[in-house]
Predict the structure of YtoQ family protein.
Amino acid sequence: MWTSIRRFASSATPQRQWTVYLSGEIHSPWRAELAEAVSHLPVTLTGPNDDHALSDDAGAMIYGAVPTRPHWDSIGARLNGLRTTTNLKEADLVVVKFGEKYRQWNAAFEAGYASALNIPIITIHPPNLSHMLKEVNANATMAVDSVEKVAAALDYTINGTEPATPKDWTPSEDIWGKGNPNPGGK
Amino acid sequence: MWTSIRRFASSATPQRQWTVYLSGEIHSPWRAELAEAVSHLPVTLTGPNDDHALSDDAGAMIYGAVPTRPHWDSIGARLNGLRTTTNLKEADLVVVKFGEKYRQWNAAFEAGYASALNIPIITIHPPNLSHMLKEVNANATMAVDSVEKVAAALDYTINGTEPATPKDWTPSEDIWGKGNPNPGGK
Amino acid sequence: MWTSIRRFASSATPQRQWTVYLSGEIHSPWRAELAEAVSHLPVTLTGPNDDHALSDDAGAMIYGAVPTRPHWDSIGARLNGLRTTTNLKEADLVVVKFGEKYRQWNAAFEAGYASALNIPIITIHPPNLSHMLKEVNANATMAVDSVEKVAAALDYTINGTEPATPKDWTPSEDIWGKGNPNPGGK
Amino acid sequence: MWTSIRRFASSATPQRQWTVYLSGEIHSPWRAELAEAVSHLPVTLTGPNDDHALSDDAGAMIYGAVPTRPHWDSIGARLNGLRTTTNLKEADLVVVKFGEKYRQWNAAFEAGYASALNIPIITIHPPNLSHMLKEVNANATMAVDSVEKVAAALDYTINGTEPATPKDWTPSEDIWGKGNPNPGGK
Amino acid sequence: MWTSIRRFASSATPQRQWTVYLSGEIHSPWRAELAEAVSHLPVTLTGPNDDHALSDDAGAMIYGAVPTRPHWDSIGARLNGLRTTTNLKEADLVVVKFGEKYRQWNAAFEAGYASALNIPIITIHPPNLSHMLKEVNANATMAVDSVEKVAAALDYTINGTEPATPKDWTPSEDIWGKGNPNPGGK
Amino acid sequence: MWTSIRRFASSATPQRQWTVYLSGEIHSPWRAELAEAVSHLPVTLTGPNDDHALSDDAGAMIYGAVPTRPHWDSIGARLNGLRTTTNLKEADLVVVKFGEKYRQWNAAFEAGYASALNIPIITIHPPNLSHMLKEVNANATMAVDSVEKVAAALDYTINGTEPATPKDWTPSEDIWGKGNPNPGGK
Amino acid sequence: MWTSIRRFASSATPQRQWTVYLSGEIHSPWRAELAEAVSHLPVTLTGPNDDHALSDDAGAMIYGAVPTRPHWDSIGARLNGLRTTTNLKEADLVVVKFGEKYRQWNAAFEAGYASALNIPIITIHPPNLSHMLKEVNANATMAVDSVEKVAAALDYTINGTEPATPKDWTPSEDIWGKGNPNPGGK
Amino acid sequence: MWTSIRRFASSATPQRQWTVYLSGEIHSPWRAELAEAVSHLPVTLTGPNDDHALSDDAGAMIYGAVPTRPHWDSIGARLNGLRTTTNLKEADLVVVKFGEKYRQWNAAFEAGYASALNIPIITIHPPNLSHMLKEVNANATMAVDSVEKVAAALDYTINGTEPATPKDWTPSEDIWGKGNPNPGGK
């Protein structure tokens, strides 16, 4: 039997697995929180190595110590890039979290990388960063301010789950009327 | 042993799974009917969220209400696009159903999107819409007027199943002769 | 000498020529109006054959008359596609005009085609069609309601020309303050 | 001033140059005839080396004679491929002429090559070859039986020139009525 | 333990499945013979519908009969193209068999299609067709004259299996000496 | 006559024009300085609109004022994107300047965008930002600290011009010996 | 529960399988050694046929002996290319080992091939070949001198495993201080 | 008037300019010799910086000296790559010259790079290097032993010029008969 807003697969068809790359901030447990929030969904989460000290030094530990910092960093960053670039390229969605602290140029770099490959992005950031992120957000599916909203977006996208009703919610039908007519325009 | 018109796979090879995206009309149960008609085939059906009211409002429910309709709609349509675009891009075939009512610009948009990506399309529409759809149909594998014909096309394509014999059917061999010669041209 | 917001080319460098494909409505002189409005810009305008009767019959006039309409139309539409597809693919920008009348599925088809190829689109339509076009507009750079606004967008994009000041205009700096800080968020 | 069905370019804009690759038959003067027929159009014609004996031996003349024919031919065909493949890839249109004689597998090969690259093709062939060419023609913009019809198709495509009125011509409007309605369907 | 010329996978890794598309001749049982010859290899064989009469008429049986042959054929060939093009595009190798009879333009078309997509091809044909096929063979990995040789090429490619020793065989080492002598080298 | 390290073109061949996109910092005159420094080279410089106030408001001036800042910014950023993305995609090189101030997420975004498209980048930044930019620099051709060094890199790349000899310079030959041998390794 | 530096997959998600192509040197058991060193990782190793004599003659054994060496080699190399090219194209990483002996042009060729396809490469070579390999290494993620270092790089990349602490190791934090500030630059 | 084997362009059409990248050996004047030999052809020659000492040190001269050789070389090679990669990617043909001396891994690397991008290559090398270059040559249009033969191949390809008749030449027609004999017919 067919059920609205769901996938029309026979029971023998394995459900599509979504791969979501988690870019950006590494100093809060947001990846774990999102993992928890989407644990009921067919979602594989990937991301960069988020152990800050290790990601700085792993390259030099393997290659050998280097006397100048830019080259030490180049070796480290190129090795980290093996993981991040491989995972980025095969993501169905990239979630990028920006915070108040740090430059986070690698987060913006990965957002640009994903956009150029036509991979959709969702950004998470405090509302007061909105203007500084306007170029990134203009390329995003959505800009939200919490992990929960990303989880809701994924649940709606994959399973058609209705998001929780916001406080004081008025559906668009009640505001602008039913059906397609849009009298008065914007 | 080899059998004509079938896949030459050893029994250990899993059959190719076809992914078919169902675009267009959301006010009739045609997706369920097609799902039923191809339930014996290795076909995964995907499509947009077909709950009209929810697809209008889900974006704003997650993002937050927005005072102007074009932006409300932009947030909703971009979120819906996460599902539709991801599924469209990985379809082996896009079936697009046009009906008498509504503008259905999103259906034609998705047909164009698929065509640009070299994904074959089959259109379903009442015969009297044929002239208005001539640009879409010129890019289609076939334009038919029923879900059953799409199912027959898939069964023939995947399994080599002979379609049901139409009423008053005369095979081409009986009309123009056997073999390649095509005397008299068009 | 360097001048802000302009191209930093030596005088020996020919200016970049922008190619803009004009899709959609063929029953008003909007293409001529836009040509007039951008006549001072390095813009080449292309588009479909906009002689309605001829575009219906040119294919059959060359190929020969065909007894059934869908095939007559298929021959015509495939020939027209030689012009439209070639021009669409090499456009820097596609402008699509939707009106109140007709189904205009070919316009939406071309918008989808352009989007899949990552070619930016700008739509022109009466405000009251906004909701029906929400999927198309979600993929657009901008949705406007006049040819003049497209010309202003091109003049700003190419030459950095400041658009005409709208009536009762308040700059964003006067509304939300200067610089990047965005206190209070959305 | 704007004129229907033409390019909306300012007089300073050079007209788009179309590149048309002429594939297939090398034993009749059809390339010269087409060159004559499109001499008033902004069309650059390219094609394979059509000196049969030279195209067989040029490779071996440069590389050195080879004792076995398949290798002699391989060296020749790979050298010819430098010209044909380079030109094929940058064509806007590929015209392929098939005749009664010879296998012409290279013509069909080039048609397939062009199709895979999304380059439109027009075939020229005697009507009685139609059935044998059905797979090629299904991928073609149009299949015609004369060089003149290719020239007419190009003139219509590039300049919007109305094709010559066929004998006993009845416009589609007179057959099926004006406007979009298509009552009765196919 | 590692064994020369084999895949270095742990036993837990499923072996790579090769997909081979069988193009061309449909009037001999060569597909069945090849299926038999590679039945011990991880190879999935695909190909066109090889029931000649059905492949001519299936399109019209679904779409409805059409009064003119070119359009009847166009509908049929476009439907067959759904199967052939989908399978061609995802092949790791395309084997194309040419015989003495028939024009087989569709076989050459598919060979060109595969080449343009960088899919390797192997041709099978009687030696006396070699010159007519020189352009196709110049793009092929190998041109052979039997199904057994294709099977040997696959067995060598996938498993590193040594081909059967030909009659009167002399290894290259015995003819031109051992190793990579590079006199002068550094 | 042939001259080492230069282009081997006949005098009739126009020299290759390099297109360099200048991304990042808009509050210093570095674009004008670079334009001056490369004015003798066949280089076309492009970049974003660098009038800060205008780039914030141009979108809303054309589209109409919008009551919420994120949507105001979205309209502005999408319009600016028409210029930046078109120019970015066709650049031969992207130079990105990072400074001490501001978040400059759009600069890092554009660097990521260029990298994903395989367009080489050169970064300019004060040395003390090196560690924060390690992921961007790992994808860069070179990271330098002045506009002059970018000009020197372009002059060497295009014309083979020897860079100015640095103070206390010792050529590599004098340090590690002449020729390829590299005894002792790193 | 979420664990730092690991994949955030539910237990039901199969771990990502990495495919690593092993190019270059065929006269030492380094492929077996690497297979052993990564046997605990989800890594599939692929590579060329490494039986030197067989890889020289397999083509001619199947095709038939050829009187001239360049054609004998061409047939052999094209057949070997079926394996190498197919595997190269789908690798996530290409490891290329260069040694003191032999020209190894095929190894450098495969490194270039991979780079053009944006597939990351890691080179293994004795330190004293570093200067001769500078162009290859400039395109590599890392250049190392042992199989063990490749295994460590993979273990860090896939599982976030900390590499073995080198002798006399000082972490970067202890050298240049903690956090992002990088005073003094390079 | 149409002339066999030539381009069918009106006199107003500028002739196609071929871009040929010259890779490999930098210690002989072969680039100058080829430039001389093709000076009558519409060919633009490009290539790497061929000043050996400068190409080793230019990067460090701009960036600043670096204490370790691999990093010194990395900076140099990445800067050189800006020129080589940009030119390689837009070549219509890559000519690669291998000599007896040096490792020339960068030449083989560039050959592989070009092949992966479907850019045809012609190799020049002494005949005795043929076996070591078999993988490179299997991907080449032709392998020759002199600059003159490259010039002859270009003259034939571009203008259809008949190559000089080799000593003791017998045309293929005199060896194997005229035409496409195909015993057994269609």
In short: Confidence is low (pLDDT under 50) at residues 1-7, 181-186 of chain E. The longest helix of chain E spans residues 69-89.
